Amino acid sequence: MPKDRRFEDKNNQKKTLSAYASGVISAAAGALSDTLFTLPVGSLVQEVKVIVIKKSATPADAVKVLVGAVELTPTAAVVGVDGVANTVVNKYFATGGKVSLTGTLVGTAEFKVVVTYLETELTTGTYTDWLFIGSF
């Protein structure tokens, strides 16, 4: 017999997206290795954006965003061109982890990093309507 899981655990509680947005990161020529934030336990990372504020004079300059050793940006986000580098990730991190930024730049650049994720254990405190329409 099928089991009704709507009322178990937090299944009927609404979730909300979370986002990390850095301030402007000014990166000088050379190696870059910064810790950005700690990803909470049980998080589904949906996407990473690198917003270029001031592009590097070297078009091939790029950075990578990682959780631990797992790359969120398998193709590095280029900071040598204007615009927004967007990477759809859709990776689940049961234990969370340290989110970091790495790369080696020839020029200097300024950019922001935005990471959008769903904390599967965090709820808004509200519930979806669990009354059946027409059940009155």
Give the helices and strands as they follow along the chain: EEEEEEEEEE
Largest sheet, described in full?
5 strands, antiparallel
**Average pLDDT for all residues:** 86
Low-confidence parts lasting 5 or more residues at pLDDT below 50? Answer: none
Radius of gyration: 19 Å
Shape: elongated
Q: Report the strand count.
A: 10
Topology, please?
Elements: E1 17-21, E2 25-27, E3 30-39, E4 43-54, E5 62-67, E6 70-71, E7 77-78, E8 83-93, E9 97-105, E10 109-119
Antiparallel strand pairs: 1-10, 2-10, 3-9, 4-8, 4-10, 5-6, 5-7, 5-9
Question: What does this molecule look like?
Answer:
With 136 residues, the protein is mostly beta strands. It has no helices and 10 strands. It has strands at residues 17-21, 25-27, 30-39, 43-54, 62-67, 70-71, 77-78, 83-93, 97-105, 109-119. The two termini are 26 Å apart. The model has no long low-confidence stretch (mean pLDDT 86).
Describe the structure concisely for a colleague:
By secondary structure, the protein is mainly beta. It has no helices and ten strands.
Which terms would index this structure?
136 residues; mainly beta; elongated
